[in-house]
Structure prediction request, 137 residues.
Amino acid sequence: MTAILFTLRAPIITLFGAEGVTRELIVLFCGPLALAFFFNGVIFVANAAFNNMGRPFRSTWINWGRHTIGTVPFVLAGGAMFGAAGVLIGQAVGGVIFAGIAAVMVRRMMDGEGGAPAPEKPFERQARLMSLLHRRR
Prediction:
């Protein structure tokens, strides 16, 4: 996708008749910032690992952190320093940081250093909860 965006950035600029700041933002987004989507992919893979290994709350915290702590301060700082381009850059920087955190957490979890071992049966906890609900009826 990065290569496609990079290749098509001139036609995209022409299609929208972009000039000035709009043109600069398209060049930035379709160029170096398109590479930052790799780090969103790292977060998606980490989410899948957390969810499939019985740690869904880790996935939740990574996503929550990325979209609050990993976005707001960086977007505000980037916007203050570089204007509209800084907003895009700030968002990308937050994604890179949280992708790194997620990758380390997944690696530790897979190495057995990330807390208690995952349940042996994939739906063991849910089965216990369902049995408790059925007993109450």
Remarks:
- The chain has a mean pLDDT of 89.
- Residues 1-30 form one domain.
